[in-house]
Write a structure and sequence with these properties.
alpha+beta, 6 strands, globular, single chain, six-stranded mixed sheet, 10 helices
């Protein structure tokens, strides 16, 4: 079952992500890479996000549950994960692991990938300093997010997971079924196999497992991250919430710097 805290926690995410429209949070303008203005499409997406959350709150979500997450000086939340299966970028023995919980229909996830992720990949993932792991957290008020998550995994069966993921994130406002089929054609997937996979529901449990894992960590909005030391089983670190600027992630990476690679567990020698 999808995490029921998602709806209420998403309000706090709007605040912690720092991406509200000018005037929506004390008249402050959100910091964006090179101070680039929001496009009309991005502005509309954020307004739609606010409307959806407002409607859910009117149906019974408790606003008071969001107050602690919205505080400026929130203590770090420890998180330890076993990372079995799924998709990752970078060296498995990188000293730092960064796990993203994402929703393909989330405008803040798109903001993170457009403004920050490319630089993280160039400076840290591609250089062996950070392993990046993708996890799914489709929010229940995003009608197309779950199917988009299934589509990315179906593309993965044809070794195109990351390419499809990039396309879906970049087109967060256009993820209707026909749109997704069009993206699959654009990246030259075997459409017969892709359609069969997308309609099979075989990744439903795996996606729900990711969402349940996020729930156990009290992660209720996207994007959210677990960043920490790489361990033999996964990662041991803390939760970072929202589409934070590059400096926030770099500060966390610096805290976790280690001169040596992580020792990956090996089987005991036979006697």
């Amino acid at each position: 079952m999808m995490n029921k805290q998602i709806r209420a926690g998403s309000v706090a995410l709007l605040l912690t992500a720092g991406l509200l429209l000018p005037g929506a949070a004390g008249g402050q303008t959100p910091a964006r890479k090179q101070d680039a203005p929001l496009t009309k499409e991005q502005g509309d997406a954020i307004l739609n996000e606010l409307k959806a959350i407002h409607q859910l709150l009117e149906k019974g979500a408790r606003p008071e549950s969001t107050a602690p997450a919205a505080q400026a000086a929130e203590p770090a939340v420890a998180a330890k994960l076993k990372l079995e299966g799924g998709y990752s970028l970078g060296a498995k023995d990188a000293p730092v692991t960064m796990v993203e919980y994402t929703d393909y229909q989330c405008p803040f996830c798109r903001q993170f990938h457009q403004a920050t992720f490319a630089e993280i990949r160039k400076k840290y993932i591609d250089t062996g300093k950070v392993r990046f792991v993708s996890r799914d957290l489709p929010l229940d008020f995003h009608n197309n997010a779950f199917k988009a998550a299934e589509a990315a995994r179906c593309a993965g069966e044809q070794n195109q997971y990351w390419r499809m993921r990039d396309v879906l994130v970049a087109n967060a406002t256009k993820l209707a079924p026909d749109d997704i089929l069009g993206y699959a054609q654009d990246i030259y997937l075997d459409m017969t196999a892709f359609r069969a996979c997308a309609s099979s529901g075989r990744f439903k449990q795996a996606i729900e497992k990711d969402a349940a894992e996020a729930g156990r960590l009290n992660i209720s909005g996207t994007p959210s991250f677990v960043i920490g030391k790489t361990t033999a089983e996964g990662v041991d670190g803390t939760v970072v919430v929202g589409a934070q600027p590059l400096a926030v992630f770099e500060a966390r990476f610096k805290e976790l710097e280690s001169p040596s690679k992580v020792e990956v567990a090996r089987p005991s020698p036979s006697h």
